[in-house]
Design goal:
Elements lengths: L1 H11 E6 L8 E7 L2 E7 L2 H9 L11 E2 L2 E2 L1 H11 L8 H4 L4 E3 L10 E5 L7 E11 L2 E8 L3 E6 L3 H4 L2 E6 L4
């Protein structure tokens, strides 16, 4: 009798996940609450990239987080918010979210990449979203101070010298 009650309670408020480890395939969660089943699709790396690229050309604006103007962390938090995912507002705080990615070759679309303000600084001051990966090289979209939202490549000397690390917040 107690097992039946426990089983019923588990079924009334339960979550079933169907995930495939890939940045391009969605993670589907079936939420059963009070007998009603609701299916939620987690965004993929591909959907994060498509959303981010919609804002190419938007101007840079310090402290801003809207299509009228973005700073780097305002851009990343805005893109993820559009997909119902929460990121903190500063690049330093974003560097503490999700799971650390040890090797550039393990990056996936939608991952966050972080950079320091100077060649010698190990303090995070800039963030972008990975759009493409080719071995140890990646492209990323970000809000640059000089050109607004644009795509750059990790081999650009400016960014390659300042790269600090990456985090995966999708599927976290």
């Amino acid at each position: 009798m107690h097992i039946a009650k426990l089983l019923r309670a588990t079924l009334l408020v339960g979550v079933m996940f169907f995930c495939i480890a890939s940045a391009s395939l969605p993670c589907v969660a079936q939420v059963v609450n009070a007998g009603k089943t609701e299916t939620k699709v987690q965004p993929t790396g591909e959907t994060v990239v498509k959303t981010a690229l919609q804002y190419l050309g938007a101007r840079y604006r310090r402290g801003a987080s809207s299509p009228k103007g973005f700073d780097c962390s305002g851009f990343t938090s805005y893109v993820y918010k559009k997909l119902n995912l929460s990121l903190t507002r500063s690049s330093r705080q974003q560097y503490t979210q999700g799971v650390a990615i040890k090797k550039k070759s393990e990056l996936e679309k939608g991952d966050l990449v972080f950079f320091g303000g100077s060649r010698r600084s190990r303090s995070v001051s800039h963030v972008g979203i990975v759009t493409e990966v080719d071995g140890n090289t990646f492209k990323f979209v970000h809000a640059s101070t000089s050109r607004g939202v644009k795509v750059d490549v990790s081999t650009d000397p400016y960014y390659s010298r300042r790269y600090i690390g990456a985090r995966r917040v999708l599927g976290d």
